[in-house]
Amino acid sequence: MAGGFKLEQQHGKGRVRVSRVWRKAGEGGADVIVEWNVSISLLSDCLEAYTDGDNSSIVATDTMKNTVYAKAKECTDVESPESFAIRLAKHFTSFYPKLGSEKHTTEVNLNKFGALRLISGVQGLSLLKTTQSGFEGFIRDRYTLLPETKERMLATEVTALWRFQFESISAIPTESKFFIERYRDVKKVIVDTFFGPPSSGVYSPSVQNTLYLMAVAVLNRFPDIASIQLRMPNIHFLPVNLSSKDNPNLVKFADDVYLPTDEPHGTIEATLSRPPLSKL
Ligand SMILES: O=c1[nH]c(=O)c2[nH]c(=O)[nH]c2[nH]1
């Protein structure tokens, strides 16, 4: 009871995003990564905070957020969201759904003289690698804060548009599954180039270079594709490092706990085309 009235209260922190990586913990020594979005609500005995302005029994919601990162750090083995929620004791946890699931797109332009322009694409193809990515050697000026790194997370959501050479309907292959199979095959080339061979992976010095190699691989593999446009936002995963005077090593970053953030993100896009056929 508070001042003769019944007071029901709770406080918490919503949408705490945390991503945890376990190095070499997966099949064949692969890294394992999860991304969680945690909401915490505390039903606690802190009525005086409401009625008397006495904060002595308040757990700060900022502390709740930090606790999520600290507890993620403590998960030394790969952990389910259920276990993580239990670890956080009576708090609600859910997996943050991976960004988008990809869509097959197409654009067809046909004029009455039979001239065709045919574009296929994939939209929202989420790709993430936990290692073999860095970013170094870029311009440093008085506004530059970004440290150089040989080890970072590389996450993107690819939008690709590829234009076929077919200039009329009659030039289109007649197999009924042609475009379905081509979509699958282009996607595979994109994905395989992004990750590199499963045994060794491939180092990415920048989103720009990886994007270019993906486009080259598609044009080299499919002669009937005239050009490809790739858009690859650089979705940042910020290292979480928490410390204070009293707690210098609360969450010491060791390539393991990240804050996934899509705002703001880098926007990187390019189009690669075959040179026009020389007309003799
Ligand atoms: O691969 C990258 N390309 C950039 O252009 C860029 N800019 C940035 O801040 N980080 C990165 N990463």
UniProtKB/TrEMBL annotation:
Quote the InterPro entries the UniProt record gives. Uricase, Uricase_CS
Which residues of this protein are catalytic? K13, T61, H236
SUPFAM superfamilies for this protein: Tetrahydrobiopterin biosynthesis enzymes-like
Task: Supply the Pfam families for this chain.
Answer: Uricase
GO molecular-function terms, A-Z: urate oxidase activity
Per UniProt, O2 binds at T61, N234
List the EC numbers from the record.
1.7.3.3
Q: Which UniProt keywords apply?
A: Oxidoreductase, Peroxisome, Purine metabolism
UniProt-annotated location(s): Peroxisome
List residues binding urate.
Answer: T61, D62, F135, R152, V207, Q208, N234
Name a GO CC annotation attached to this entry: peroxisome
Residue numbers binding 5-hydroxyisourate: T61, D62, F135, R152, V207, Q208, N234
A biological-process GO annotation? urate catabolic process
Q: Which family does it belong to?
A: Belongs to the uricase family.
What this chain does, per the entry, is described as: Catalyzes the oxidation of uric acid to 5-hydroxyisourate, which is further processed to form (S)-allantoin.
The protein's name in its UniProt record: Uricase
Organism whose genome encodes this protein = Dendrobium nobile (Orchid)
